Amino acid sequence: MTITAFLDANVLYPVTVRSVFMELARRKAFRLRWSEQVHQEWMRNLADRNPHIPPARIARVRSLMEAHVHDAMVTGYEPLIASLTLPDLDDRHVLAAAIHGGASVIVTSNLRDFPPATLAPFHLAAIKPDQFVLGLLNDDPDTVVAALAADRSDLVNPPLDTDEYLTALERGSLVETAAALRSMAERL
Fold this sequence. Notes:
Blueprint: E1 4-7, H1 9-12, H2 15-26, E2 31-35, H3 36-49, H4 55-68, E3 73-74, H5 78-81, H6 92-100, E4 105-107, H7 116-119, E5 125-127, H8 129-139, H9 141-154, H10 162-171, H11 175-182
Parallel strand pairs: 1-2, 1-4, 2-3, 4-5
Helix pairs in contact: 2-9, 3-4, 8-9, 8-11, 10-11
């Protein structure tokens, strides 16, 4: 059974992590879910922190993401938002979309904003990106390694050798995943 994961904006903002998740979803290692609000948030954060990137380029990235993963967009969750309680009220849209989208996990870098006791009634858990990818790697190493090999080979500006790619994963907070992949480096 394929796991359905809702991605928080903080997973889509860093280019390395976004690229890994997109390739894993494209290869059907998991079923990806996101929302318009999540898209707007990561795009706004990217633009705010990198004003030199033209808005059209950011919009193109989003278009490519949607072209590669056709059924990820969750809509119709908005009525749930007001009924939910989280430490950060601005994150309720993530929980609402995850529930409505049939996710079993929310992949986020902000675990404290998604307490286990709050998520449990919805049969949801929150997990960090590194732990999520590592879990996929442990469950289906062939698919994950093939996906990451494809991700690495798609990098052309600049191209990265295997060690540089693993270092980029570490810099992108996929530290445990990179460590586990070092023993399979010849396949990347």
